[in-house]
Write a structure and sequence with these properties.
globular, 340 residues, single chain, mainly alpha
């Protein structure tokens, strides 16, 4: 058979693949209003913010799933349509969308990272969290499926995907009888720890920004993972209350001492994400803070950067070691009365 004779078969094959991709991308798009119906909205601030947070996330993902991926158009969509407060949530959704798109590649993990590096280095943490949402949708709690991605993802950040797994698990679970974290038993201990950090973030949202209710849910978490969940709770408080940090620090002051350094470590990670993604928003927000809050924030951020630098050459369990060492240094400063 000559090349000319085989050409129609090749063309049909290419067209078929293209149609499959179009259908797949369309199926990956989320019905925003349907998603919102999964949640009750009973408190004023939460009722105002959560729908916009979820819409930002899902809109970011849906925009990423256009048939033709144009990074300049996508970046413009994100920068124009979302305020500084909500923009990070939209970029997180993009991480889920990139995960879906990467399914068409031979090397899915490398394709995902090619996408995120091209779009923006400033939302690195949000991208991996968003990827975790997709991996949970795609693979449930099958550890071996995650391992195939993890072997080729960035060694520093791949564990952050499990924060996304833990968050989505908790967020979409039953508020009144939430033992959904038992699903993490499918993962080994190190993976469960990051899942529980994400689960701790979900507690803040499930409790509708109410710290007393959050602490009740936190104490349902197995003691082995409670500090990791407290870390996630602190991360969520700092990130979602970035525009009202004085209230975030009132919440911090109320945290029981055994969980305080873990909660602070989570706050430091949430603050670092905010600092990285929008330096101008960071500067203007901190300018309005009391000096004591600035002291805490600047000290925590210095610790985050110091530990990251110390661990820079370490590939194994970078993220867990980063969590633990930041937590330990914050605790040591507290014991020396340098910060608490």
């Amino acid at each position: 058979m000559t090349i000319m004779q085989s050409l129609p078969i090749v063309v049909v094959f290419i067209i078929t693949l293209a149609l499959i991709k179009v259908i797949y991308l369309e199926l990956g798009k989320q019905d925003i209003e349907k998603n919102l119906r999964n949640f009750s909205l009973n408190t004023p601030l939460y009722s105002e913010r959560f729908p916009l947070i979820l819409k930002s996330f899902l809109s970011g993902s849906n925009e990423t799933l256009r048939i033709a991926l144009n990074m300049n158009r996508l970046r413009n969509f994100l920068e124009v349509n979302f305020s500084s407060y909500y923009k990070g949530f939209a970029y997180e959704g993009v991480g889920m969308g990139f995960g879906i798109r990467a399914e068409f590649s031979f090397n899915k993990a490398k394709t995902f990272e090619k996408y995120i590096k091209k779009l923006s280095p400033n939302h690195i943490y949000q991208f991996y969290v968003g990827l975790g949402w997709w991996l949970l949708i795609r693979h449930g709690y099958q550890e071996d499926k995650y391992e195939k991605w993890f072997k080729k993802l960035c060694k520093k950040y791949f564990l952050i995907t499990l924060d996304g797994v833990g968050f989505k698990t908790g967020l979409y679970s039953n508020k009144k009888n939430d033992w959904s974290f038992k699903k993490f038993d499918h993962f080994k201990n190190d993976y469960q720890r990051v899942c529980f950090q994400g689960f701790g973030r979900s507690i803040w949202f499930q409790s509708e920004f109410q710290i007393k209710e959050s602490m009740k849910k936190l104490h349902l978490v197995p003691e082995e993972y409670r500090k990791d969940a407290a870390s996630g709770l602190g991360l969520a408080v700092a990130y979602s209350f970035f525009d009202q940090l004085s209230q975030a620090f009132i919440i911090y002051d109320s945290i029981p001492h055994p969980l305080k350094s873990a909660f602070a470590q989570g706050m430091s990670f949430g603050l670092e994400a905010r600092r990285l993604q929008d330096p101008n928003y960071w500067t203007t927000t901190l300018e309005s803070q009391p000096e004591v809050n600035k002291l805490f924030i600047n000290t925590w951020i210095q610790i985050v950067h110091k530990v990251e630098t110390e661990l820079s050459d370490q590939e194994n369990n970078f993220y867990l070691n980063w969590m633990d060492k930041v937590r330990n240094e914050i605790r040591e400063k507290g014991e020396k009365h340098e910060i608490f």
